[in-house]
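F.,

This is the one I mentioned.
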């Protein structure tokens, strides 16, 4: 049994969700868990959607009537995670608007949709692990520092793959 299970649901038509994209999302989830020394067996749900659907979720759960790039729904309650089978931790849900991600490539200096999806998965994974930039300035700095470190690793992975294509 794998230690990390990522359930990916595609509910958008902007991009084709290739094996490479699926592998990238899985890699990003695993990388964050590894760097954060999260030892449990884990399940994560990732939904790729569009602006209309994410706006509805943003209104319903965050009381914000606008589309956003990513929403995180951690399953922890006061630092305790839901377990089933007494072994597997259900970390939570990640919802990404691919439409919004495409529109902000330039804003975040992302070279491609894969890089932007990676950035959003990393951001959301940190939320699932309890980091929250909306709690205050200190928490925002901690989360930003962790994102920079993880995103550098991912950017190096992209660079390595581009430089080593046969």
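My design for it:
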């Amino acid at each position: 049994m794998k230690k990390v299970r990522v359930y990916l649901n595609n509910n958008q038509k902007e991009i084709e969700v290739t094996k490479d994209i699926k592998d990238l999302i899985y890699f990003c989830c695993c990388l964050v868990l590894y760097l954060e020394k999260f030892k449990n067996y884990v399940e994560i749900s990732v939904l790729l959607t569009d602006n209309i659907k994410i706006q509805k979720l943003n209104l319903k759960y965050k009381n914000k009537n606008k589309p956003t790039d990513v929403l995180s729904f951690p399953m922890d309650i006061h630092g305790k995670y839901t377990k089933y089978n007494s072994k597997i931790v259900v970390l939570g849900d990640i919802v990404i608007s691919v439409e919004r991600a495409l529109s902000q490539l330039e804003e975040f200096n992302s070279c491609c949709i894969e890089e932007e999806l990676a950035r959003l998965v990393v951001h959301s994974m940190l939320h699932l692990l309890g980091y929250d930039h909306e709690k205050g300035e200190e928490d925002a700095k901690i989360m930003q520092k962790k994102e920079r470190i993880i995103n550098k690793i991912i950017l190096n992975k992209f660079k390595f793959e581009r430089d080593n294509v046969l």
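The first strand starts at residue 4 and ends at 10.

Talk soon.
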